[in-house]
Amino acid sequence: MSQQMGNQPMIVLSEESQRTSGQDAQSMNITAGKAVAESVRTTLGPKGMDKMLVDSTGNVVVTNDGVTILGEMDIEHPAANMIVEVAETQEEEVGDGTTSSVVVAGELLSQAEDLLEQDIHATVLAQGYRQAAAEAKEILDDIAVDVDSEDTEILESIASTAMTGKGAENSKDLLSRLVVDSVLAVADDDGVDTDNIKVEKVVGGAVDESELVEGVLVGKERVHDNMPALVEDADIALLDTAIEVKETEIDAEVNVTDPDQLEQFLEQEEKQLREMVDQLEAVGADVVFCQKGIDDMAQHYLAQEGILAVRRAKKSDMKALARSTGGRVVSNIDDITAEDLGFAGSVTQKPIAGDEKIFVEDVEEAKAVTLILRGGTEHVVDEIERAVEDSLGVVRTTLDEGQVLPGGGAPEIALALGLRDFADSVEGREQLAIEAFADAVDVIPRTLAENAGLDPIDSLVELRSRQSDDSTAGLDAYTGDVIDMEEEGVVEPLRVKTQAIESATEAAVMILRIDDVIAAGDLKGGSSDDDDDDAPGGPGGPGGMGGGMGGMGGGMGGMM
Fold it and tell me: Are 449 and 456 in contact (CB under 8 A)?
């Protein structure tokens, strides 16, 4: 990039740097955004297809989940990555609707492209899109239906809708019931924290054999075979300190001159361990979960006392055990009291698909539960886990927000109709942007119809005519009919839709407002060497934009 000053050209950017500006930059960014949306569009809806993602080492992921597909894809283009962020935000906030949000963002860019060609300015488009998004939120609020947390039937419908089209579909009745039971079990005054629901995958058996353990499943075995494998009415001690001989803080050498002295040393160590075990026994502990190690001699003493002990339990398991059994995690065995112990009706070691695990069950009002998901192969179990995670997210969101919408493209058609009416009341060129927004939202029912092998135009026309009387009319992808979605039990949380529209609009507006793409140096503002163009942050390095901006050829090569 150079500028003429008198007869002397002035160099501003280095010769190697790349710059794309004006319409070329807008066109390139819009094409990248549309390409991302197109890559996941065929996965949308109950008849959506799956994608197989293979990395350089041969690992395979087969999934229908939008955010997983985009996360695993090797996307370099900077604008394309902004669309991927839409899916990631959607996943974090609500857990479902990741594909919808990306498809809407891509369609907003596509509609904008036509208007930009008609010389409508990008900032006018941005303003119109923002007005449309604000109106869309109000329209969705108007058609939302309140739900009660006691209404398990509608919660199961919500869980089941989130699973539809994913690998878990055949057993969605059982899985949606397990999801609702687990969310209601861990719900408290502060809402629902799905971290308290541990999802344990087991390869082997059928999906129908999945179950909910009202308590905690710890993926460890008891440390000594002479310990009991079953303890009923168990008082449970939770320790985050080792049951081992205390080491000195400082490096010390002890010279032993006499075998008796060595004997005393060993006796002292044994005495220390014995005292620790006696302390646990004295407070009435039947089961000990230890986050650190347990000395061999201590294991022997614990087994003598009939105490079941587990060592090196994960921190997350300890947290779940404390929440579930009502116990407190203790850092010093000398300080443990009977009040610190938790309680469970039974603690058992039993095998699951060949692996021994400890079940802590029969807990009064378990506030931490474990979902055991089974499936024939690893890929099947992984996909079921993703479907269940989405379901957990939507049920949690519904309990927090308390409002739902019909599915099957119904809210999108209602939005499009409402926004076209709203556009007539808006003066200026923004009106065209609002109409374009309405057309963009239509992409969801149109894609549902296309993926189900139906005629998208016929489906859209019929949906619009029915929607004028009934805002719950949506498309049944299996029969091709337009039916009442609420009666059919196809419902999703209001938040899934509002979040998708908001994030898609923000990403589209951000991309549309870019008119210049310049390969930057180190954006972190770090003290990297200015001459080193091939440093990771430099223009030619893999992390810089030179590598990521080789147009659609290099940038999107890993995507198509």
Answer: yes
